[in-house]
Write a structure and sequence with these properties.
Elements: H1 2-39, H2 44-119, H3 148-173
Helix pairs in contact: 1-2, 2-3
Length: 174
Amino acid sequence: AHRKLLTRTEELKSRQGLLADAIARGQQELDNLRESLAALQDTPAEQVRNDTALSEALDHLDGLNRLKEKNSALSDLERKKLQMQKVYLDASAKAEEIAGEYIRANKLFLDAQAGVLARMLEPGKACPVCGSPHHPSPAQAPLHAPTEQELKQLQERADLARNRETEASLEAMR
């Protein structure tokens, strides 16, 4: 998704450069036409040519104005796209952070379960996990471990963050 956004950014920048070049060429052509008009004499035949040249120059000016508007719109789209990319990157970072929290909490939860089982062990009686009557190194429960409910809530937060990341990615690719 990020690669598509970068490719789209490059395309937009290229188009913006082409529009700027076209505007500059049109402006130069308009300046040349104005110089030509100033140099012509005011005879009736030349006046007709002047009027035609002026009309063409005005058409070019209208075209230039439309190009400027398109260039401005393209710049606005570029800014909007960059904002959407930032939203996506922020959502992605948050999703990674919460996923990491869940993984750590899940490990603590599982370690705590081993500690709970270890507290129930009695010398000479079979372990409920492996069946051995010998318990040389029982697991120690961590000082703080999340409850099953806390773990479930953290999983829901992680899922929500991933959904937000996906939505931001899809929005940025539009």
